[in-house]
Every structure is written in C-alpha cells, then in structure tokens.
Write a structure and sequence with these properties.
Blueprint: H1 5-37, H2 55-89, H3 96-109, H4 125-153, H5 162-185, H6 187-193, H7 197-227, H8 233-259, H9 279-294, H10 297-309, H11 323-326, H12 353-359
C-alpha cells in the first residue's frame, strides 16, 4: 500500500489483459474455423446443415472480452491522474486506500457486467436484471475515484502546468461520459438508446476522451524524466485547450443526435425523413473533429522540438515525491536505480508541517531519510 497509484492501474490492466484477451482469441479462432473449415459454432438456421450453432455465442465471447477491455483502456489513465493530481495540488491523495480498492473493485466487477451490451438480444429478463444491477453497482467505485480526485484538489495549493490541466480535463470528460452511461446500463432506457449515436458519444467520452487526455497528462508529466528536457508550456496549453474543447464538442454532438434517434453505422442517415433535421448538428460535429485533429499539430511540434532542443530539465522539476523523480537521473541511467532505493513512506508525502520544519520543503521523497521523530505516515488521507 505504498505503491504509486499509476502502478496499481498498470498492474490491474495487466491482470485483465491476461484473463480476457484469450477469450477474444478463442472467438476469433472459432470464427476462422467456421469460415475456412466448415464448422458451425456460430452458424445457425437454414445455413446450419449439421444442426447449427448459435450466432449469439459470438456476442457472448466478444463482450466477455469487450467490457473488461474498457477498463484495460481506462485503468492506466486513472492511475496516472491519481498520482498527478496530488503532486500539483501539493497535498496527499485523498483516501489512498479507497482509491486502490475502488480500482480493484472495478477490475473484479468488469467481468460480470458485459451483458448490458446484449439487452436487446432476447436475453432472459431475469439475467438482464442481474447484469443491470451489476452495471449500476460498478458505477459506485468509479464515483469514489471521481470524488477522491475532487477531494484531493479541494483546498489544495493547486498549480496548473500542462500535466495538471490534462488531468483535470480527464476528470471532467470521465464524469460526463460516466453519467451518460447510466442510461445505457438500465434496461428501460437502453431499449431506446441502444445502437444509437448516444452509445458512440458515451463510450468515447468515457474511454477515448478520458484515456486520450489522461495519456497526454502522463506524457507531459514524465517527458522531462524520459528525455531530460522540458516541453514548452505555451504550446502545451494551446494543445490542451484545443483538445479538451473540441473533444467535448465532438462527442457531445453525438449524444445530441443519438438522443434524437439517429442510429449508428448509417451510411446516409438523411435517407430517413425523421433524421434530416440533424444534418446541421452532424456537420458541426464533423467540423469539431477536424479542429480536434488540427490541435494535435502543436503537440507534435512541441514533442519533437523539445526532445532534441528543449531546455535541460532538472532531476525533479515538479518537486514530486515518487522514486523515479528522487532516485533516478533525467533521462534514467541503465538499470534505473543503483543502488536499489529503500522505501520509507507512501507516494504522496506532501504538505506535512513536520517535514516542512525539518527540510524547508513541502514534500519528502519515498526513499528520503528524515531526522528521527519526524512523523510521515504512509497513508495519511488529507
């Protein structure tokens, strides 16, 4: 319980990969056998000359992987921003243990909620109610994470360099995407919204936008450690404001047309009279998508220019507390740590008056030896 939270996120993602990627591989193998060798695992009806299989079996196998995959994508981003927000709020992560166990709970529950993708397949109503219940339950630990991030920032000495801006943007789009997902997790509202653009908007706000912004948060944060140079803050802020503005507009536009009844995967929605009035909304969504792509250009320029000619970075430019900032050079030497550091405390030893009195700093590294009597509890909430 002294690991940085991004390490927890990466580890839990690895667990889900090990357990559920083979299920997708099995589905692909059975499909290959059906198509190439005449087996009938998924072939049914008149095409099933030997008794036939069940097309829904493919959906089961796909979604048993497909829903944990959602958390394979988002858990690393959760871990990244769970470490970055305390560093730039200059206070310990609120309820560290609660954040850890919430991520663990999401990982476990992710295996038993996949059926909410299949409410309209003719599933037994009792089974559907079970999946609906678990789907609503999984929102509770996600809400704990969200509230812990807000509590960490609350009354903090908040600083807003580019990594923190992207972390806050991640919190915002994840909250927006999570709320819109509740309507897909309940059977009554999913019947109307299923297979509409609402699903596309929700999914991409929760997964694509949150993972997208969270990844940039980590990249800007660890860039000095990876390359020993600082990225340009002005270009970073241009990249942030353009990205967060237009990514919200793109997927919020999809929510609007989805709620109006536009189905997904239509080649030409305007063949349908009841969708013709949505042309302007879809055009605006497309313009926002093009602008979102354009605002990635400042990042590309910033990344490559900073990699080769950016100002030299200090070993610990953020005054961070985790081992890579206090025990490894920038960029790290071979083997990272020589000798291997001893860990004395948790990853967010910030804003401790006793540390301030002993060191003159508002932080202490995980491996830093402090004078006897200085109290630095590993898991002090806030």
């Amino acid at each position: 319980m002294r690991l940085p939270l991004n390490v927890w996120g990466m580890w839990l993602t690895a667990v889900l990969n090990v357990l559920f990627v083979p299920v997708l591989g099995s589905a692909a193998l059975l499909l290959l056998l059906d198509r190439a060798f005449g087996t009938q695992f998924f072939v049914a009806g008149a095409a099933g000359v030997k008794g036939g299989g069940d097309p829904l079996l493919f959906q089961h196998l796909f979604w048993i992987f497909g829903h944990p995959e959602v958390y394979i994508l988002i858990l690393p981003a959760w871990g990244i921003i769970s470490d970055i927000i305390p560093m730039f709020s200059r206070k310990p992560a609120y309820w560290y243990a609660g954040t850890v166990w919430s991520m663990v709970a999401v990982t476990v529950l992710s295996a038993v909620v996949y059926g909410h993708h299949m409410f309209l397949t003719g599933m037994n109503p009792l089974l559907g109610k079970g999946f609906m219940t678990f789907t609503l339950i999984i929102s509770v630990p996600a809400e704990v994470l969200f509230l812990n991030w807000l509590h960490t920032m609350w009354h903090g000495s908040n600083r807003f360099p580019t990594p923190m801006l992207f972390a806050v943007g991640t919190v915002f789009v994840f909250g927006l995407g999570g709320l819109t997902g509740l309507y897909l997790g309940t059977i009554a509202t999913d019947i109307y919204l299923h297979d509409t653009m609402w699903v596309v908007g929700h999914f991409h706000l929760t997964m694509a936008a949150a993972a997208f912004l969270g990844s940039f948060s980590g990249l800007y944060y660890w860039f000095p450690k990876m390359f020993g140079r600082q990225m340009n803050e002005t270009l970073g802020k241009v990249h942030f404001w353009g990205s967060v503005t237009f990514i919200v507009l793109v997927f919020s536009g999809q929510l609007v047309v989805g709620f109006s009844g536009q189905q997904r995967r239509l080649y030409d929605p305007y063949q349908y009279t009841y969708l013709k009035h949505l042309l302007t909304a879809n055009q605006l969504t497309s313009y926002a998508a093009f602008l979102l792509a354009a605002f990635q250009i400042p990042f590309i320029i910033n990344f490559f220019r900073s990699m080769f000619s950016g100002p030299k970075a200090e070993q610990n430019p953020w005054n961070a507390t985790t081992l890579e900032w206090t025990n490894a050079s920038s960029p790290p030497a071979h083997y990272n740590y020589n000798p291997v550091p001893t860990v004395y405390r948790g990853p967010h030893e910030l804003a401790n008056p006793e540390v301030k009195k002993a060191t003159g700093r508002d932080w202490a590294g995980q491996s830093e030896e402090l004078p006897a009597g200085v109290n630095t509890p590993a898991l002090k909430p806030s």
